[in-house]
Amino acid sequence: MSQNAYIKLVPASEKQVVTIDEIKDMFTYYKSITSKTGEQLSWGYSEAAFPYTIEEKEANNEWFCLKGTDPRKNRYILIGVGFEQIEVQTDSTENQQCYIQVSLTDISTHGDKGKANEFCKFLATKLKGELHLFNGRVMYYYSKK
């Protein structure tokens, strides 16, 4: 059974809408900072920190797949962007809220789940979003006023 985690972009977030290309750019940035960490440690840390390749399927630019480089440890993580209708409590109107969905497939490994949690926390920190983890818990990465 597949599992899902969500990063919701709330009004206090850095951005209100994010695209697939922006998420891919964030993963490119993640790979560059982990490779710099590896250079400082004289160790190939970038391969351990991001053991995936980004694969694009024909999905109208709504999602992409992270395919593991070592199938024994990592297989697949799916990442997509969507919108949901939320009700504003003050005046009962509905607004659109952007979210990033991170999904594990039926064949995903425990290594995929650990990396997916790590990537979710990274994305939620960068975007100052609200992270709904695979286990149902919620982490807030934006300032509450």
TrEMBL record:
UniProt xrefs under InterPro entries: DUF1885, Rbstp2229-like_sf
Protein name in the entry: DUF1885 domain-containing protein
